[in-house]
Specification:
- It is a single chain.
- The protein has 9 helices and 12 strands.
- It has a single domain, classed as Aldolase class I (TIM Barrel).
- The mean pLDDT is about 90.
- It has about 280 residues and is of the alpha/beta class.
- It is globular and about 45 Å long.
- The strands form 3 sheets. The protein has an 8-stranded parallel β-barrel with strand order 1-2-3-4-7-8-9-10, surrounded by 8 helices.
């Protein structure tokens, strides 16, 4: 079985320091959490940038500053940035890169998350029509950014297959299964999702909240990859709060070792995801 890519989702749009004092707000705190995850074995860092007061940042410069600070101390790490909702969008990045005062050497994220359909989360609808999905895919192509295709149910896979037939996506694809929001977080449904993907493709899975660790173990056994981190769950086990994202990555790496999967380096993850060096 190929090596395991561990993604650390170090900060989401929810959660505050009252929930966990280690949730990062400042750029220095983002660097601390990313470095802890990287040192524990994470090849990919997924994040929603925050302002210093803890609010979710919608400023592309804030995200890019976080990205540059993290890559300075985590050589080769792959940064994933959410693409829709209260986050930096592809349209913002195009506008920023097109400005006359934009630095010629300005780096953009290699990968951006692309939610692949409408999702209901805690009663709130996140609307993603075929048109918005495919327009975002086109914008990512223009910027040279690989989409991290975020899936909340099987129908979203069929949407991506439609877009693939229409030429909006390039192989190999990379998918991210979010289990326990719209589709149940169990091994049966995870295996069904994995078996439904167009090939060639790589995939990562995460379980939300209490579903984090059994989904991690199932993904490792099924040949997929794993995402853990404060965005998805802040707990090492029932009632035991993780002191850092590094602790969560270390637990995922330990489970992988027990199940016979070696951990992929950033360079190896890059090759598996079809990214350039």
């Amino acid at each position: 079985m190929e090596k395991l890519i561990i993604t650390a989702a170090i900060c989401g749009m929810g959660g505050t320091k009252e929930d966990n004092p280690a949730i990062p707000y400042t750029i220095e705190e983002f660097v601390r959490e990313a470095k802890a995850a990287y040192d524990a074995g994470a090849a990919v860092i997924h994040m929603h940038a925050r302002e210093d007061d803890g609010t979710v940042s919608e400023r592309s410069k804030r995200f890019l500053d976080c990205m540059d600070a993290i890559t300075a101390v985590c050589p080769g790490v792959i940064i994933v940035q959410p693409a829709t909702g209260a986050a930096v969008t592809t349209e913002q990045l195009i506008a920023l890169k097109s400005r006359s005062d934009a630095p010629k050497d300005m780096r953009l994220p290699e990968v951006m998350t692309l939610p692949s359909g409408t999702c209901n989360w805690d009663g709130y609808p996140y609307i993603n029509t075929d048109e918005t999905i495919f327009n975002s895919a086109q914008a990512m192509k223009r910027l040279g950014i690989k989409p991290d295709l975020e899936l909340f149910d099987k129908g979203m896979i069929d949407t991506i297959k439609k877009g693939l037939a229409l030429g909006y996506f390039d192989m190999p694809l990379h998918f991210d299964f979010i289990m326990g929001v719209q589709i149940a977080a169990n091994v049966r449904d995870l295996a069904f999702m994995a078996a439904s993907l167009p090939q060639p493709a790589s995939w990562t899975a995460t379980g939300i909240g209490p579903d984090a660790w059994h989904i991690a173990a199932a993904a490792i056994l099924l040949g997929g990859h794993v995402r853990v981190g404060f965005e998805d769950s802040m707990y090492l086990s029932d009632g035991v709060l993780a002191k850092s994202n590094g602790e969560l990555v270390a637990k995922a790496a330990k489970i992988a070792a027990l199940l016979g999967r070696e951990i992929a380096s950033p360079a190896e993850a890059r090759a598996m995801m079809g990214l350039s060096e």
